[in-house]
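Attaching the record inline, Q. Sequence:
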Amino acid sequence: MDYINDDFKLGILGGGQLGKMMALAAGNWHLPIYFLDQETDFPAGPYGMGFTEGNFKDYDDVYQFGKDKNVLSIEIEHVNTDALLKLEEEGVIVHPSPRKLNIIKDKGLQKQFYAEQALPTSPFKLYPDKESLLAAIDSGVRPYPFVQKSRTAGYDGKGVAVINSAADLDKILDGASMVEDKVNIDKELAVIVARRPAGEVKAFPTVEMEFNPIANLVEFLICPAQITPEQEQEAMEIAIKTIEAYDLCGLLAVELFLDQAGNILINEVAPRPHNSGHHTIDSSYTSQFEQHLRAILDLPLGSTQAKSPIGIMINLLGAPGHTGLAKYEGLDQLLAMEGVYPHIYGKKMTKPFRKMGHATILGTELEETRQRAKRAQQKLKIIAD
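Structure, as predicted:
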């Protein structure tokens, strides 16, 4: 198929920052890419060949958007899969598979899938509602500590409750949930893996994530992860087995726990470009966004080799106490720093801890690079104008 012509159309459900960075990668090939999302002033708006205003959760909006596209993909899981199934029946190529997307966007079905496929994950149980979980706690069937996750619609720490004791019961979430034993975490890891229809699979090096305790968002992402070569090999093998078990094409971000006993367990996955792969834009020969395009178009996958010995990513977040039109203070200071590469997403409105951008810091020695990352974090303030 000739992808570089006006007759070819790649459609993406979602026009946020992931869509924008996908469009920037597509621009290198002048690949015709189109977006569906609610407003044209979303981050991807100015960067595609076209932008359709609509709701990617609505059947009609997704169907009408997709029916003239050759290939469809996503930048968010929570899309209308019934419309994608219908479009697939009519000959549109859809990646990731909407059937597998239905599994992934339900954290309960996701956990059941790992159990059925003998993929390593923590023990869990499903509860239909808050009341059944509370009853299990009262009877002693559900011991502390545990983590409760809403089965659908959770992201970036939302829809997650950590219950250490009876003092935390006011945090219990409403609705159907998946409850898993709390893992004694040593490190939180992630592997971005790509697969194309021809069967080729490639994984990026494992990264290590350190989280902001207040916002529950990644504060520092370190590549490569500070783990043993054996653990690196095991993490990559788990990621490859996972994407092959799902039979997915495109990217799969596999988030992992390394527990204090040395076991590597699957936490959850995302079938798209992911925050844990943003550093690849600057630190890898192929970015995760280009790799996703290669994979869904069944093109040869690019090199996942790192160009820099150390890459650290920081999220650029809205300042606490600020809600309104975004104003960036200190961007000139950030740009003056050597080996620091900021990416501003272009969201008009800021609010506390909202992801407004990220920066990659490249270096040759971990501690020196980490210190520069901390200084970079302090340079830029995103406030309300």
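The domain at 10-94 is CATH 3.40.50.20 (Rossmann fold). The chain has three domains: 10-94, 123-181, 185-384.

More tomorrow.
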